[in-house]
Amino acid sequence: MESINPVDFKVVGTINLSKLPTVLKSDLTDKDKEKKLLKVQKKLSEFQDVMYAHNRYGVLICLQGMDTSGKDSLIREVFKEFNSRGVVVHSFKTPTSTELEHDYLWRHYIVLPEKGKFAVFNRTYYENVLVTRVHPEYIMGENLPGISNVDDITPQFWENRMEQINNFEKHVVQNGIIVLKFFLNMSKEEQRLRLLHRLENKADNWKFSTSDLKERELWDDYMKYYEDAICKTSTEIAPWYVIPADDKKMARYIVTKIIWEEMQKHTDIIEPELDEKVKANIELYKEILKK
What we know:
Largest sheet: 5 strands, parallel
Helix content: 40-55%
Oligomer: single chain
């Protein structure tokens, strides 16, 4: 595959993750993928500089995927050419006691990207319709009105949450944030191999947790809820892209290329021109500085 078309990965309508590829067939070597990635990285970095000067938009990149799907390394590689001031990464863990005193979107809202910057959410507010559906007992920590036990959590509760998320994304988009969401679609077999790698390589042992094995047993539940959430929240203004993730190098290139292609749609993002008074006196200012 010589070109990446975002439409090929964009979710429109319903999907079945088990029928979507986890590997993209390609004649590209690993070296080819790295070269292509570097080329797009640089263009995206230059675009962010222009966006920073333009100061009208922020970009929110949402990354979701099962454990070992490659989110951390993808973030490192995709944004390595960025000016450090241009991108901020947020990794959301189990909510703190302070965060639980607010609604589930609060901790995400307060770290949305500033104008001119990219923010990357490594795991996102979607955990609140994914992990909590697999483990509904987690909802009890939110101390919500009308919910005294797990049996009070009805199917309508989850429908309401996804509607809330759609409304949240509509709100932030209307206020200048470009939202792009990526699900790293890894096979269960590939996860097995990556977990084994963590155990067999001492340098990676620290990444392994017994909870990884427990969550792996719930794979089918996770896939079911991912499908439901992705289908119900992939909109034209905040689309989901399902990325084949068994090949990390190819996944990084695909994500970077999609971001780049989507940014090109915002043709109003241009470098601001100098103030007319400054422009008219630019030679004078140069002479002052030379003296």
